[in-house]
Model the fold of this input.
Amino acid sequence: MATKVQVKLGERAYSIAIGCALPSLVSVENAQGHRAMIVSDSTVDPLYGAACQNRLEARGVVCQRVIVPAGEATKSLQWVEFLYSKAAEAGLDRSSILVALGGGMVGDLVGFVAATYLRGIRFVQMPTTLLAMVDSSVGGKTGINLSQGKNLVGAFYQPMEVEADLDRLQTLPRREYVSGLAEIVKYGVIWDASLFHLLEKHADELLARDPVLLEKVVARCCEIKAEVVAIDEREIGPRAILNFGHTLGHALEKVDGYGQWLHGEAVAIGMCYAARLSVAVEGFAAEEADRIRNLLLKFGLPVGVSGDRRASWPLLRQAMGADKKTVRNRLRFVLAKKLGSVVIGCEPGDDKLEEIWNVCCQ
Done:
């Protein structure tokens, strides 16, 4: 039996289904004769592409599949144009459906294409990674990268439905799975201290991909994100709490080259940095910062950068300066007050930022 989470956005409301062996998509029940284009990457399509196509065609949908290269580099204008061309060749119209079958890269890319092709067509998120299930597939953020930074071009555009089938996590490489755990830890830090405690208590079962625990944890993360998005869909204010750990994390991804760090790995380092910054600037308890660090370590995530992988501070500072949250070159951080509660718009001075970075590199 699937768990259902509702994203309450009026006429843009939709449901997230979470569970194993999920039934067919509700959103295509009345789509007989409509066209759909499934977009997946070169890793995921061989695993799930044909099954997804068969499900849609069994509902009378005229369906085709398109494959893009795996990897963050595909989130670019080049591949947006490629998908526009494929959509036109497939005869997609405003009644058609784009299906994002894959991880966060595919979801972000396809969502942006859906938001802009014919000024907007319907799309469905079918995430295949833990990180996409708990974060990027929910909330309507779509986007692509520029050479200057990550997700600098995008749109807020909600899907019709999200299908988080936990069975797909069984084929996910361990490193990719662990990367997703970083975003789960984030929800405990920013919103729900009891979730953080649950993660501490059941870390081993979560690492073992226990399906009952996974469904509970993924559903809770989706509930939190749905609540935040319902309050602030377009990140005018409170939704920024979801960026805890991301300012430094995005900079690390850019400076070291996309693919060197998985997104969750970079965010884990960013969260440890933000936690130390919170101790220095916001009075966050050092013991709680240590709990964040220890939980990330228990999951096998990186908590700092040293040796050959250490990026220079000037390069990181420059990359963070291109962050969407920066105003007049003043970096804005989400910092913790206590576990389960954070504040947005914090502007520590450059000296403090560099000092804490040097601590994280020890």
In short: Residues 211-231 form the longest helix (21 residues). The domain at 3-171 is CATH 3.40.50.1970 (Rossmann fold). The chain has 13 helices and eleven strands.
